[in-house]
Amino acid sequence: MTPFINVRKITIIKKTKTPRPNPSAVGTENGAAPAVPIMNQTENPKIRLENINYYYGKGTPFEVKALDAVSLDIHGGKLTGIIGHTGSGKSTLVQLLNGLARAGEGRVLLDGVDIWADPKEIGRVRYRVGLVMQYPEYQLFEETVYADIAYGPRNMGLPEEEIQARVHEAAAFAGVDAALMEKSPFDLSGGQKRRVAIAGIMAMRPEVLVLDEPAAGLDPQGRHTIFQGIRDYNRKTGCTVLIVSHSMEDMAQYCDDVVVMAHSRVLMAGDRDHIFARADELETVGLDIPQITKLCLLLREGGMPMPAGLYTVEAAEDSLMKLFSEAKKNRRGGERS
Amino acid sequence: MKGFAFGQYYPANSVLHRMDPRAKVICAVAYIVASFLCKNTFSFVLLFVSAFALILISRIPLKVVLRSVRALIFIMAFTAVLNIFWIVDTAEGAVPLVEFWIIKIYTKGLYHAAFILVRILAMVIGTGLFLTYTTTPIALTDALESLLRPLAKIKVPVHAFAMMMTIALRFIPTIMEETEKIMSAQKARGADFTTGSLAKRAKALIPIIIPLFASAFRRADELATAMECRCYHGGEGRTKLRILRYHARDFLGMLWIILFIAAIVTLNILGARFGWLYTM
Ligand SMILES: Nc1ncnc2c1ncn2[C@@H]1O[C@H](COP(=O)(O)OP(=O)(O)OP(=O)(O)O)[C@@H](O)[C@H]1O
Ligand SMILES: [Mg+2]
C-alpha cells in the first residue's frame, strides 16, 4: 500500500546497496573467520559483543543490516557513551544487551557468560541489564508515579520495604520530586514522565544501566539534570552505565568512554581523550563535534600550537592561557635582549 | 511485525489494477451474485475457470492468491464434509455409494461438496482480485464513499464514515509498531507475557493496553487539532485531490461481468431443460 511505505526503510535499503569503506571487515563475508578485532578491548569486560551481525526482516525484500560485524567491550563501572547519526544502529545495539533482540550471528557476553546460554533465563538478564528505551515516557501505566516506579522491583518479587527504599532512591537519582509520587503519571510534563521512566529502571538496581537517548527533546537545563543524575548513579553505585546520544557535547561532558557508530558499524571506541583526539575523523563521517573542539581544530589549522582533542571549555581555556602567557614571556624576553 | 505488509495490496501492472475502484466494487458484488446463481456442473465449471482467468488477468502470482485461500481451508473442508454426509439423494433409484451404520454417502453429496468448494473458492479469489489485491485500501474507501453518496440525501454521514475508515487504515501500522515498542519496554521491566495461568497472563497485558490506549487518544487528539488547523470541516464543499473517473476499461469490465452472469444463467437453463448431470 503505497501511502504507508516506510520512507526511512527505503532510503536505508539504498544505502546498504552502495559500497562503503569497510574499516574492520576481515573475513566476515564467508562467515568463516570471526577475525574482527574487538574494539575498546579490556581484560574483564562487563559486556563483550563478539562479531555481531543483526538483520531486520531477514529474507524479505525489506532486509536491513542494522549491525555489521560489531565486536566491542564495555568496561565495568564506567560511563560509556554511544554516539552515531540517525539509523546507525545504536538502538538496535542496546536492545541486544538485555536480550530484547537476539542477533542471528555473534554472541553477547555478560561477565563472560553468553546471555543466551539458557534462553529461559533471559528474564534474569533483563534484571541485570536495565534498559531505558527511546522515548520511555509512553510506557507509564500505573495509577501513581510511585506504583509505576515500583513495577519493575515488584516483578522481581522483592519485599515491600525493599521496594519502597529502592523507589525513593531511584526517584532521587532520576530527579523525580517527592511531591509527585502520588500523582498520576499521565498528569506530568514530558520531562517529568521521562524521569519517572528512568527511575523505573534504576529502581531495579541493574548492574548495567542502559539509556537510549535519555535527554532527547529536553531543554538544556533538563538535559543537564538528567545527565547529572545518571552520572551520580554511576559514581555512587559503581554500576556500569551506557548512554546513547546524538550530542557530542553531552558525551564530552559526562562520559568516560565513547563508542562511535556509523553505518551499522563501530567506527571507533575508547576513552574520551583518545576519541576526541581524532575529532577531525569524526567530522569526516558527519558527526557533530563539540563547538570548543571545532574551535581548537581551527586554531591549530591557523598555526597555533593547541593540543588536539580538547573537548571542554575549561581545558581549552587553560591551554589558551598557557599559550598566552608563554607568548607574553617570549615577547618580554625578546624586548630585553 | 514491521515486515508485515499491511493489507494484501500487491502492486502489479494489470487492467485490474488500473480499473476505477468503483467499477471494481460493482464487479466484485456482481461476481458474488454470479457465484450464487450457479446451479449445475457446467455453470460451476465456468465459475471455476473464470476465477483462474481473473488471476491471469491480474498478473498476481498464483502463490500469493492461494495464500489467502489457505486461511480458509478449514471452513472449506468443514462445509465440504458436512455436505458429503448431509445430502440425501431422494431421487428414485438413487443408491448410496457408501452405506455404513447411519452414514449414507450419495454421489449427489459428493457433487454438492465440490460445488460448495468451487463457490467459496471463486468468492474468495474474485473479491480478493477485484478488491484487496489490486486496490489500495485508500482507493477502496474513496470508492465506497462515492458509491454510497446517494445515502447522504437521507442524512447518512457517508463522508464521516469514509474519513473514519481512512484514518483507521492509516493508523494500523503505526499502532502495531507502538505495541511492539511498549511490549519491549515492559519486558525490560520484567513483564512476562508467556508463562503462568491465563488470569496471570491477562493481567500482564494491562501494562501494554493502558499506554497503548493513552497514546491512541493522544494521537487522536493531535490529529483532530491538526485537521482543524487545516480548516477541515467535514465533507461539505470538499474537493478531492484524486478525482475518480470512469474509463472505457471500466465499462468493458462491467460488460464482461454482465456477459458472464448471462452465460451462467444460460447454462443453468439449458441444464434444467436437458437434465444435464447434477444440479443443486
Ligand atoms: N523494527 C525495525 N524493522 C526494520 N528495520 C528497522 C527496525 N528498527 C530499526 N530498523 C532499521 O535498522 C537501522 C538501525 O536502526 P536503529 O533504530 O538501531 O538506529 P539508531 O542509531 O537508534 O537511530 P536513531 O538515532 O534515529 O534512534 C535503521 O536503518 C533502521 O531503519
Ligand atoms: Mg535509536
Report on this structure.
With 337 residues, chain A is α/β, with parallel strands linked by helices. Chain A has two domains: 36-289, P-loop containing nucleotide triphosphate hydrolases (Rossmann fold, 3-Layer(aba) Sandwich), CATH 3.40.50.300; 290-337, no CATH class. In chain A, 41% of the residues lie in helices and 19% in strands. Chain A has helices at 7-17, 90-97, 122-128, 145-155, 160-174, 190-202, 220-237, 248-254, 272-277, 279-284, 291-301, 313-336, and strands at residues 47-56, 64-74, 79-84, 105-110, 113-114, 129-132, 208-212, 240-245, 257-262, 265-271. In chain A, the strands form two sheets. Chain A has a six-stranded mixed sheet with strand order 6-7-8-3-9-10, sandwiched between helices. In chain A, helix 4 crosses helix 5 (160-174) and helix 4 runs parallel beside helix 6 (190-202). Mean pLDDT of chain A is 84; it is low at 1-34. With 280 residues, chain B is mainly alpha-helical. Chain B has a domain at 1-135 and 245-280. In chain B, 68% of the residues lie in helices and 2% in strands. Chain B has eleven helices and two strands. In chain B, a hairpin with a 2-residue loop joins strand 1 (98-100) and strand 2. Chain B is flat. At the A-B interface, helix 3, strand 6 and helix 4 of A face helix 8 and helix 10 of B.
Helix-strand layout with pairing:
The complex is a heterodimer of chains A (337) and B (280).
Chain A: H1 7-17, E1 47-56, E2 64-74, E3 79-84, H2 90-97, E4 105-110, E5 113-114, H3 122-128, E6 129-132, H4 145-155, H5 160-174, H6 190-202, E7 208-212, H7 220-237, E8 240-245, H8 248-254, E9 257-262, E10 265-271, H9 272-277, H10 279-284, H11 291-301, H12 313-336
Parallel strand pairs in A: 3-8, 3-9, 6-7, 7-8
Antiparallel strand pairs in A: 1-2, 1-4, 4-5, 9-10
Helix pairs in contact in A: 4-5, 4-6, 5-6
Chain B: H1 15-18, H2 21-37, H3 41-58, H4 62-70, H5 73-86, E1 98-100, E2 103-105, H6 107-132, H7 137-148, H8 158-188, H9 198-204, H10 206-229, H11 248-274
Antiparallel strand pairs in B: 1-2
The structure holds adenosine-5'-triphosphate and magnesium ion (MG).
